[in-house]
């Protein structure tokens, strides 16, 4: 079940504020609270992090609606819709600078209020996705620079990463994705020709618990973790989008060992041979956009090129 969008009302007239609250609830929104001043509104936004703020442009407090909305925009990137009975040109010019997501004229029409809120939520979602895509692409461009730098080294032998390499290439991407963890897994063959996989490198967010030295993630096989299907897909160069709720029970072991709820797993090829794979994992279930997945595919290809460079 999808969560209801949460809205904070900033209105200094109690009767009007309560009327708006009941209207929003009837339209299916969650009302996070009511603030009677700009100062209180900033405190509530910081504490509650609503999805949207309905702001009376004419607050009769020290900090008016425009100043409050400007601070919310800069500090929290939360969309603001102005409520106004009237506004002169000077006030509207000030309001434009705060980049509001719409205006609703009081006394408001319920259908108009609903439409403006829905459009604001949609526009803000698209804006956030574009910002995240651009951040990921910038991080990938940093990885390209890293690849070009090591390609100019005198040594032409294939190389393994060191911890500094991992930080330089994975951390910007992990931060741009707001990911929980990134893991690189390498396949090796023993003298008898049997293939095993080990987690070789790892990056994690502050709340992720490292798994790099877990015994279960050293020298396992695809079959031992019921990942034979994953292997067959990766051999074909396919991307695996995994969530705990969407995986068969017997394929959940890897995510359980990592303490994550979802991930994008991509093969790493060196000279057309499957070297291993890289996983971009999240601590909650989520689905990555096609732009994000394409950026991650580029990252996996760069890693293969860097590790196999001669």
Strand-helix topology:
Elements (H helix, E strand, L loop, with lengths): L5 E5 L3 H13 L3 E6 L2 H11 L3 E5 L8 H12 L3 E5 L4 H9 L5 E3 L4 H42 L11 H15 L3 E9 L5 E10 L23 H8 L4 E4 L9 H6 L3 E9 L2 E10 L7 H18 L3
Parallel strand pairs: 1-2, 1-3, 3-4, 4-5
Antiparallel strand pairs: 6-7, 6-10, 8-9, 9-10
Helix pairs in contact: 2-3, 3-4, 5-6, 5-9
Structure description:
The chain is an alpha/beta fold. The protein folds into two domains: about 5-110, Response regulator (Rossmann fold); about 135-305, GAF domain (Beta-Lactamase). It has helices at about 15-25, 40-50, 65-75, 90-95, 110-150, 165-175, 230-235, 255-260, 290-305, and strands at about 5-10, 30-35, 50-55, 80-85, 105, 180-190, 195-205, 240-245, 260-270, 275-280. The protein has a five-stranded parallel sheet, with helices on both faces. Strands 7-6-10-9-8 form a five-stranded antiparallel sheet. α4 links the parallel β4 and β5 (about 105). α5 packs parallel to α9 (about 290-305). The longest helix has about 40 residues, at about 110-150. The protein is elongated. The model has no long low-confidence stretch (mean pLDDT about 90).
